[in-house]
Amino acid sequence: MSKSYVYDAIAVGSGPNGLAAAITLARASRSVLVLEAKDTVGGGMRSAELTLPGFVHDVCSAVHPLAVGSPFFRVLPLAEHGLEWIYPPAALAHPLDDGTAVIVERSVDATSETLGRDGAAYRRLMKPLVADWDKLAREFLGPLRFPRHPLAMARFGVLALWPASTLARLLFRGERARAVFAGLAGHSILSLDQLATAAFGLVESILAHAVGWPIPRGGSQSIANAMASYLRSLGGEIVTGRPVECIEELPPHRTVLFDVTPRQLVRIAGKHLPAGYRRRLGGFRYGPGVFKMDFALDGPIPWKAKECLRASTAHLGGTLDEIAAAERAVWKGEHPDRPFVLLAQPSLFDPTRAPAGKHTVWAYCHVPNGSTFDMSDRIKAQIERFAPGFRDRILACHTRTAVDVERYNPNYVGGDINGGVQDLRQLFTRPVARINPYTTPAKGIYLCSSSTPPGGGVHGMCGYFAARAALRVL
Ligand SMILES: Cc1cc2nc3c(=O)[nH]c(=O)nc-3n(C[C@H](O)[C@H](O)[C@H](O)COP(=O)(O)OP(=O)(O)OC[C@H]3O[C@@H](n4cnc5c(N)ncnc54)[C@H](O)[C@@H]3O)c2cc1C
Question: Does pTM top 0.85 for this prediction?
Answer without folding.
Answer: yes
